[in-house]
Write a structure and sequence with these properties.
The structure is a homodimer. Chain A is α+β, with helices and mostly antiparallel strands. Chain A has a single domain, classed as Alpha-Beta Plaits (2-Layer Sandwich), CATH 3.30.70.100. Chain A is about 30% helix and about 40% strand. The first copy, chain A, contains three helices and four strands. In chain A, a hairpin with a 5-residue loop joins strand 2 and strand 3. The radius of gyration of chain A is 13 Å and the shape is globular. Strand 4 of chain A pairs antiparallel with strand 2 of chain B.
Chain lengths: ~100, ~100
């Protein structure tokens, strides 16, 4: 399967998690009309109060890369960066399963 | 959102990852007819050769719990256990996004 898949953990600076979450939820909403974006789920972490996990699947690595060049994505990133203490990506090789 | 969501990392014993992956893919296939199971994706890890990550979303925690009592799930678990060196779950509070 040539899809691009990853879990991305954003760790917010103290007190900024909700503002960061809102920006990521806006991004997920904007992705509704982007067919190459197949999954973009926003999760909070029960174990880590400052963490926001994004589950993402794109039709290809190129599609994911191209999305980062979109003006609205650049704007989201610019607004989110000051709120972020750390980013950790877990790149995945999606084999398949139920739901996509 | 009251859905049950988690990332679960299964670490296979040396040389057993592919057998474990097959069992998990069978489980994902069996989940195709289980409407409470909304997402059950099987991923290999580029960083960790013995790891298999499962992305799962269920309609509720109860639905997820009930699934563990199903005979075919018990059978899969029994077949998988000897292949597994470790299991690590990242419980999530799914807020929403695209794809579900």
């Amino acid at each position: 399967m040539d899809k691009y898949a990853a879990y991305v953990k954003f760790t917010a600076k103290a007190g900024e998690r909700d503002k960061l979450t809102n920006i990521l939820m806006e991004a997920a909403n904007a992705a509704q009309t982007v067919k190459e974006c197949e999954l973009y789920l926003i999760n909070l972490s029960e174990k880590e109060p400052d963490a926001v996990w994004v589950t993402e699947v794109w039709s290809s690595a190129d599609a994911h890369k191209a999305s980062l060049d979109q003006p609205e994505t650049r704007d989201s990133i610019a607004r989110a960066m000051p709120l972020i203490a750390g980013v950790e990506a877990i790149p995945l090789n999606l084999l398949g399963g139920k739901g996509l």
